[in-house]
Amino acid sequence: MSDDNGQFIFEKVARLLKQQQEMYGDFEVLKKGQGDKGTGQQKSLNIDAQSEVAEPNQEYQAKKELTIEEQLEACSNLVELKSLCERLDVLKTDLDNTNLVFGVGNPNADLMIIGEAPGENEDKQGEPFVGAAGQLLDKIMLAINFKREDIYIANILKHRPPNNRDPKPEERERSLPFLLKQIELVNPKLILCVGKVSGTTLLGKDATLKEMRQKFHKFGERELMVTYHPAALLRNQQWKRPTWEDVQLLRSRYDELGGTP
Predict the structure, then answer these.
(1) Which of 45, 78, 101, 237 is deepest in the core (most CB within 10 A)?
(2) Can you give the pLDDT at residue 65?
(3) Phi, psi for residue 244 in degrees, rounded to 5
């Protein structure tokens, strides 16, 4: 008998016994061959319709009714977190039929890079930073001796917004707890936010990119740095030099903290 069938029978018996109890009062179920005849000694099994018979269903309901916050807290690894994210509509934008873009790279990385939101190419492939901006990010990281597989890459949003617009405040607010859990599970020493939206979201303050750059911000037990988004560099060449200065500073601090590789 399958677990589902067994559960159905338990529930059906519990309902029947409850109905009988309400109609006729408390009663006993006698073992076969025992009763008024024979020795007069009755060995009976007391049945309470609300006791052990109902327990399997109560346990099932308790697990089923966990809040999103409780399910998020229960995730002990990235696989479980990704599975949860795949089931939740709360992470989606107002663009229909998008794919989850969870994260990619070394799950134990000492450096984590966080962008703003997936674009069209990322949505199609389900992986962050795979378009032109992603290719430029790979080149920048390689210039300071990081391969893509050495680091972990994610975004504030896990679904693509329409027309590649900036994430709305309410979208960032809904997505942030899942990103924070992702950061906790990867447990990097350093975080690099690329773009103003990424930096202001994680730091929880409204600041310009100029105000956030060229310094390490305290982020819990970690440190966080902010620089230009690679997509911005494709539009404006003059930002490449300050970005290069930022990532050199990042590499130096990474080595000081004992990051590997």
Answers:
(1) 101
(2) 83
(3) -65, -40
Residue 105 is which amino acid? G
State mean pLDDT over 105-123. 97
In this structure, how many other beta carbons lie within 10 angstroms of the beta carbon of residue 176? 15
On the question of pLDDT at 59 being above 60, the answer is no
Q: What is the CATH number of the domain that holds 77?
A: 3.40.470.10
Does the pTM of the predicted model rise above 0.85? no
51 and 76 housed in the same domain: no
Distance, in Å, from the CA atom of 242 to the CA atom of 225, rounded to the nearest integer, reads 13
pLDDT at position 120 over 80: yes
Burial 12-43 (b: 16+ CB within 10 A, else e): eebeebeeeeeeeeeeeeeeeeeeeeeeeeee
Pair 30, 83 in one domain: no
Reading the block at residue 39, the tokens are 């020795």
Cβ atoms of 84 and 163 closer than 8 Å:
no
Judged against a pLDDT cut of 90, whether residue 19 lies above it is answered with no
Beta bridge partners of 105: 152
Q: What is the DSSP string of the chain?
A: --HHHHHHHHHHHHHHHHHHHHHH-S-EEEPTT-SSSTTS---EEE--TTSGGGHHHHHHHHHHT--HHHHHHH--SHHHHHHHHHH-GGG--SSSSPPP---EE-TT-SEEEEES---HHHHHHT-SS-SHHHHHHHHHHHHTT--GGGSEEEES-SSPPGGGPPPPHHHHHHHHHHHHHHHHHH--SEEEEESHHHHHHHHTS---HHHHSSS-EEETTEEEEEE--HHHHHH-GGGHHHHHHHHHHHHHHHHHTT---
